[in-house]
Amino acid sequence: MVSFSEQNGLHLPPRLERLQNLQTEIYRQLQLLIPDEVTLYDSFQSEVSGSPLLRMDILERHPYTHFLRLTYEFRKDEDREIAPDAHIRIYTDARMAEVTSYNPDQGFRRKAHPGYPPQQLFRRCWRQNQALDKWLSYRLHQGHSLATMKPARDRINGKQVLPIKESVRSL
How far apart are CA 47 and CA 54, in angstroms? Predict the structure, then answer.
C-alpha cells in the first residue's frame, strides 16, 4: 500500500554527507571521460553514433584542482548551439568534483554572499550536482568514454587552440 502522508525521503533536506558522496560519484564518472592527454591539450571532443558531439575544455589547471567546461554541441548548417553548459571544479586530492554553474556567465554572476540564506545555497548546489550526476551517467550509457574522447582543434567558443607543449615551445 502506498501512503502519501509518510515521508519517503524525497522531501527531506539534502545532507552534507550525501552531497559529498554525490560529488565523489561525479569525480568517478569524470575519470571515465578525461583522457591522459589532458596534460597536453586544452580541448577535447567525443563523437558517438546517436549522440550529440560532446565537448570539454580545460579552463584552469592548478596542483590540486582543475576547472573544466563540459557541454553538448549541436550544429545546424553554420549555426552552433551548446547545452547544457556545465562548469565543473575537480578536486584531485579529495577525489571529488562539483558543478559550479550551468550557464556561460558563471564567472560574472554572484552566486553566494554572506547575506544569502545558506540553506537555499546548499539546496541549489544539491540540485545542480544531482543534475550533473544524472547527465554524466547518461553520457557514459550513450558510449562516451576515454576511448572516444579525442583532442579538438578549437575551444567550445570556437577559438583556435594549440597543444600546451607546442605553445610552450613558441615562448
Answer: 7
